[in-house]
């Protein structure tokens, strides 16, 4: 049976063979608990620490990387942990309107507990309004959170500028770098906390990390042992750590090669679309491995049903089944109908130009057929 064409890289990426190879010895032989003092435990701990060092290398000195179960946990921990420490002396949390639900839902939860949440608008290009940010980020602000590369439309936010605004008033800057990590430059110097995830860079699912600048210590989210730096409790999975490290090292080595490949794919996809398709978000300030497009009147549910051997998204995979149009697409000014007529194609390292071009041609044909039948 022919495998489907996979165009959903924002949801997850294929596991790199190098990551799988790094994991297997720790699953089969060196299976000790990394928090145990005996030989197998020490071997497992050594694997964890080597992995930690490899992943954190590009962040430079002046910080530490703590493993989590994924980026959702890392973001929850960062936001809730800083809010708890700040208390009522700095009750304001500033986020952008197109953040991941892990940020927006956490902010909403804090709003119900007395925090003041400010949601910054974005323009039709999907870029945050810096004038609104300057007005919102003041001495009462505890934390500013911004996604580096948006998971739904691929736009790249001015994180460095937002970080400078936060620093000027003594607030903490949190960057959700999940989609941009090892793809675009992360402005580490402007950030105090950075959340990343393994399975977005060809690593295993179930592991992420939160990088903390020295002196930044969010209150624990999980209690029960403090295995990670005294701040995060729970037994680590050495195999997942090793898989994460192998995927990260590969991504670091291939960053230019992968970017060039993605650029070729982007151009091929645009060339195949033809008239009638519109790009959602900035055409320039974005990651080109994310192509979010719309066509007026498109029935996306029918399109996906007609093309079941092509894996693409009607929006963020995290929000599928909610029955709501994408909050990101609505935030950039699309109507409900326009948002519901949008699709997201995500591609990367393992995507071939031939399969992408064929998939785009079939999507265009199926969309055109809808218009014929509707006429």
Report on this model:
The chain starts with a strand and ends with a helix. The strands form 3 sheets. It has a 7-stranded mixed beta sheet with strand order 2-8-7-6-5-3-4, with helices on both faces. A 3-stranded antiparallel beta sheet has the order 9-10-12. It has a two-stranded parallel ribbon with strand order 1-11. The chain has helices spanning 17-28, 39-56, 71-86, 101-111, 130-136, 159-168, 238-253, 255-273, 300-306, 327-331, 336-340, 353-374, and strands at residues 5-6, 63-68, 92-96, 116-120, 141-147, 172-176, 193-197, 208-213, 278-279, 290-294, 310-311, 342-346. The protein is globular and about 65 Å long. The protein has 2 domains: 5-13 and 255-374, Alpha-Beta Complex (Aspartate Aminotransferase, domain 1); 17-252, Type I PLP-dependent aspartate aminotransferase-like (Major domain) (Aspartate Aminotransferase, domain 2, 3-Layer(aba) Sandwich), CATH 3.40.640.10. Strand 3 (92-96), helix 4 and strand 4 (116-120) form a beta-alpha-beta unit. The chain is built from 12 helices and 12 strands. By secondary structure, it is α/β, with parallel strands linked by helices. Helix content is 39%, strand content 15%.
